[in-house]
Design a protein that fits this description.
Blueprint (H helix, E strand, L loop, with lengths): L1 H24 L12 E4 L3 E22 L2 E28 L2 E19 L7 E20 L2 E20 L2 E24 L2 E21 L2 E22 L4 E4 L1
Pfam family, one: OMP_b-brl
Organism: Bradyrhizobium huanghuaihaiense
Protein name: Outer membrane immunogenic protein
Length: 248
């Protein structure tokens, strides 16, 4: 009888321990590690921004007509008109792989001033003031994620006022809106979704143009003025459309 009871107790203990042991020995399920997600900056979309900086315009004056008497271009000298620029830009970019293409229009208020004493008509002082600049350009760039280097080129326009002064008093004057060409380059950095900051340099080839000066409504001379502009700006842009995408 004791042997029967002992065998029954042993079987009961074994049956109680077996499920727990099986549970402890069960294989843990395999879980695949999550795939890493990389953030890629996308330069595509419409953008708008502001810019500010400085510029210098080289202006060389050659007189070729005095009171209706024409003559050869005779150099009166050159001067640099320098000062500040501030304005805005709007454009559109599209990206293909790492290449970025774009179109942009930019307009700036300017305060570029300079003068020199005429080498021909001294003591007359020739003065240049450029008060507005515009650029209409195409862009080609290459992006390293959120860093973009680009070159640009297209049309440029300036508005300038010219004065001839004696003792600080304006004797004769002229003004013009001039069209020319522009090339430039810039480096842009995307620092937040939609936001980027850039530094840019542009050179404007404005060529030579004849300008008729008047004194009390009478034309007294014609000067052929050659003009170029070098401009450096810091730019802040906002691109619409969420420029950060995920790449698995």
């Amino acid at each position: 009888m004791k042997k029967v009871l002992l065998a029954s107790a042993s079987l009961f203990v074994l049956s109680a321990l077996t499920p727990a042991s099986a549970a402890d020995l069960a294989a843990r399920p395999y879980t695949k590690a999550p795939v890493a997600v990389a953030s890629i900056y996308n330069w595509s979309g419409f953008y708008i921004g502001a810019n500010a900086g400085g510029a210098s315009s080289r202006n060389c004056w050659d007189v070729n007509n005095i009171f209706g008497v024409a003559g050869p271009d005779t150099a009166e000298g050159c001067h640099n008109a320098t000062g500040a620029v501030v304005g805005g830009q709007i454009g559109y970019r599209w990206q293909s792989a790492s290449w970025v293409f774009g179109l942009e229009a930019q307009g700036d208020w300017a305060n570029l001033k300079g003068s020199n004493t005429s080498l021909v008509l001294a003591p007359l002082v020739n003065e240049t003031k450029i008060d507005a600049l515009g650029l209409f350009t195409g862009q080609v760039g290459y992006a390293w994620n959120n860093v973009l280097w680009y070159v640009k080129g297209g049309a440029a326009v300036t508005h300038a006022k010219y004065n001839g002064t004696v003792g600080g008093v304006v004797l004769d004057s002229a003004s013009e809106t001039r069209w020319g060409g522009a090339v430039g380059t810039g480096l842009e950095f995307g620092f937040a979704p939609g936001w980027s900051v850039a530094i840019e340099y542009d050179h404007l080839f404005m060529g030579k143009r004849n300008n008729s000066f008047t004194i009390v409504g009478i034309n007294d001379r014609i000067d052929r003025i050659k003009q170029d502009v070098d401009m450096g700006t810091v730019r802040l842009n906002y691109t619409f459309g969420g420029p950060v995408v995920a790449k698995y």
